[in-house]
Amino acid sequence: MSDTMIAGGALLIASIALVMSVVSNVRGYSLHQRMLDLERRVKKMNGGTSGMGQSD
């Protein structure tokens, strides 16, 4: 009985960690996209000679 509870607790912790990592990846992706958009705007304002970051 106690072994089952330990396994259940470990499974719960693992699933929570998975959800948290997925959520943080989604947030990180949207933040990355925002940074790329900002970079493009800066390049446009500088006439495309910024040289900041990587090209698409």
Could you give the topology of this structure?
Blueprint: H1 2-45
Keywords:
single chain, 56 residues, mainly alpha, 0% strand
Mean pLDDT: 80
Uncertain ranges: none
* Helix fraction by DSSP (H/I, runs of at least 4): over 70%
Q: Approximately what portion of the residues adopt beta-strand conformation?
A: under 5%
**SS-based class:** mainly alpha
Total number of helices: 1
Any idea what the shape is?
rod-shaped
End-to-end Cα distance? 56 Å
Spatial extent as radius of gyration: 21 Å
Q: How are helices and strands ordered from N to C? A: H
Characterize the largest beta sheet: strand count, sense, and whether it forms a barrel: none
DSSP strand tally: 0
Description:
- There is one protein chain.
- The protein is mostly helical.
- The chain has one helix at residues 2-45.
- The protein is built from 1 helix and no strands.
- The longest helix is centred in the middle third of the chain and has 44 residues, at 2-45.
- The radius of gyration is 21 Å and the shape is rod-shaped.
- The termini are far apart.
- The mean pLDDT is 80.
